[in-house]
Amino acid sequence: QVQLVESGGGLVQAGGSLRLSCAASGKPLRLFSINTMGWYRQAPGKQREEVATITRGESTTYADSVKGRFTISRDNVKNTVYLQMNSLKPEDTAVYYCAAERRTWGQGTQVTVSS
To answer: Exposure pattern of 8-32 as b/e (b: 16+ CB <10 Å)?
Structure first.
């Protein structure tokens, strides 16, 4: 079974950047065997929303609210998925989760953007 651990969250000023990482583990595990990896977020009082996804073939999708600012990538050798977040806004404040095939979820990492 796959386990996912997110890291890289924190407090940043508006306009700043953060890079989130999602390390996948399990035996046997090859990230390449997982087709769709994604990042999701949930702000207080709001539903969880999809932020970005990436397939095995590295096709990507982004929420309209993050297009041009966030970039998702995957390293199948390191079994890690990344979310590079630039030009952060206060409305990006949320707990960010990664997921494998929208079925297995990590515990989340807090991102707080101050104005």
So the answer is: bbeebeeeeebebbbbbeeeeeebe
Angstrom distance (rounded) from CA 7 to CA 25: 14
Contact between 38 and 56 under an 8 Å Cβ cutoff? The reply is no
Phi, psi of 72 (to 5 degrees): -100, 145
Non-local (6+) Cβ contacts of 67 within 8 A are none
Write out the two tokens for 22: 């999602």
pLDDT in tens, 65-95: 999 999 999 998 899 999 999 999 999 999 9
In the numeric block, which tokens belong to residue 62? 């982004």
